[in-house]
UniProtKB/TrEMBL annotation:
Coiled coil: none annotated. It comes from the Eukaryota. Residues 1-197 form the Reverse transcriptase domain. One of its GO terms (biological process) is DNA recombination. The lineage of its organism: Eukaryota, Viridiplantae, Streptophyta, Embryophyta, Tracheophyta. Residues 435-495 form the Integrase catalytic domain. Keywords: Aspartyl protease, DNA integration, DNA recombination, DNA-binding, DNA-directed DNA polymerase, Endonuclease, Hydrolase, Magnesium, Metal-binding, Multifunctional enzyme, Nuclease, Nucleotidyltransferase, Protease, RNA-directed DNA polymerase, Transferase. This is Retrotransposon protein, putative, Ty3-gypsy subclass.
Amino acid sequence: MAPDELKELKTQLQEKLDKGFIRPSSSPWGCPALFVEKKDQGGKRLCVDYRPLSAVTVKNKYPLPHIDILFDQLGGATVFSKIDLRSGYHQIKVREEDIPKTAFSTRYGLYEYLVMSFGLTNAPAFFMYLMNSVFMNELDKFVVVFIDDILVYSENEKEHEEHLRIVLSRLREHKLYAKFSKCAFWLKEVAFLGHILSAKGVAVDPSKVEHVLNWKQPQTVTVIWSFLGLAGYYRHFIKDFSKIAKPMTALTQKNAKFAWSSKCEKAFGTLKTLLTSALILAQPDITKPFDVHCDASGSGLGCVLMQEGRVIAYASCQLRKHEIREIEMPTALEAELYNLVLEPTIKDQIIAAQRQDKGMARIRDEIHDKKKACFKLDEEGVSWFKNRIVVPKDMELRKKIPDEAHTSMFTLHPGSNKMYQDLKQKFWWTLRHTNPQTSGQVERVNQILEDMLRACALTYSTKWDECLPLAEFAYNNSYQKSLEMAPFEALHGRRCRTPLNWSEPGERVTFGPDLVTQAEEQVKFIHDNLKRAQCRQKSYSDKRRRPLVFEKDDHVYLRVSPMKGVHRFRVKGKLGPRYVGPFKIIEQCGPVAYRLELQPHLATVHDVFHVLQLKKCLRVPEEVVDTSQIQIQPDLTYEEKPIKILDQMQRSTRRTITFYKVQWSNHSEEEATWEQEEFL
């Protein structure tokens, strides 16, 4: 501190000691002291930088009133008085155990406050709570309070006299003292919280705007923020404040280059001019109607609140980038809107199909007769199964719903299990049990192609993918017993030319009725050959096949398969259990399906199975597999997981390979396998 400040510090410390505001301290706390300029009569006020203390203080969330809301209560007032408390914070004592926390260090020692000090983080909130408690019955009737500033307002002088008497008696009752030099009574126009209040309305305080008018051109983003913060305090006096200030606010954006342009200079000057010529805003009367005038552009929004032709307040805001895009997008797509065709939703299509389906009419009759307890009708007559809508027997609609759930842009191929879970929450229709099997014909063709590729790769010493064209040509040009010709001849009506198969030159029919007749005869010939081949192949298969027939109360094993989630080196799950059970047959459901009596932990598995999934139980004890130890999924699969590492070894060839002896779930240690590290 400067010598004159040290002198002032000693004087104020002695004054506070004499008044009993502070006392010498030995507290472990301590914050630095500093001076700030006083508004009235000059001089300096001793303050303490309590930021370290505020950082560890539990904050008081008591709200401070919004200044605009305070002014809204003054409608119809013509007489005003303002009262400012003398060092308001110092009129509140600090709790004894909290006094050491207020300690502050100076050139002349460590002191602590016995009363509430300026700079404490909870001081404004607590003082606001105190003032509201004191004037709770008078608030918004003829008194508004903002911390230690009190405004008394009345419609006439007679009422004002009574209102002043009540306010002063409240202050005396609670021993709160005002500073007479900062008070003013019986005023027609009063300066309060940076505004001029009168019977005409609310205006800008010229003394507060003077600093804005003397502001020099900003050179940094921080200075722009300071200017906009001060000018923005009076933004409700300026029409389209946000639009005018946009060139300046653009400089404050992240990664924006600071370049003061002519637009910024114009906005800077316009804001200063409008602040000096700001209108007087009228006080609102809630008993009369309001008018709201709105304006919008591609960069901002603005509105004016008016009453009986007088402005109550202005409001404006700038649009962010995503909001601007939302405005521009409808404009860019305006022409496309005329081409849109509204189609009924999936639900509307189901409702329409229900009303046209005869089977749904029978279901509705049974619902009315209370024969179907799980079904219900809503107010529109739509049939529901519990909380799922019933889809009628419309194959096109039943195909459309899974397609929408699978290929829609809102789902993007979620997978069969997830798609099923999504559909079963909203839709219901009857399904038939299926037993999907692999296509033996396709597998046989693949086997032939593999043999061809293997022979080609070995013969010509090349890669198998380079042999694909040769294998394709050879297969299509080779004789097929089922067709009694080559596939190429069946498609084109002639054999393909090769070194061993040539055609003699001559005339050939390439168009006309004779060609059509010849093609039809060829197609009929191929169909007959395929039917004979199917019958022949069926007879071969039936020679070694006998129908599987079970009786009620028989016991059978149920076939399960391991999931592909774990790759087992060389073993590939062959040691895993293939059958679980045995289970008792309850009934026969059709010629090739049986219902089994499953255990409670298999409740998620459907109890009807195809005969190919069953094996006769001969009551051999060692074949019985405990199903409670295997977590079988609804699709009859289970997952094999490594549960224990029993041993380790390394093999060195060109590189060192680490192997682990792994025990798998559902298997004993004797069934452990050696697995390569990279496959675990």
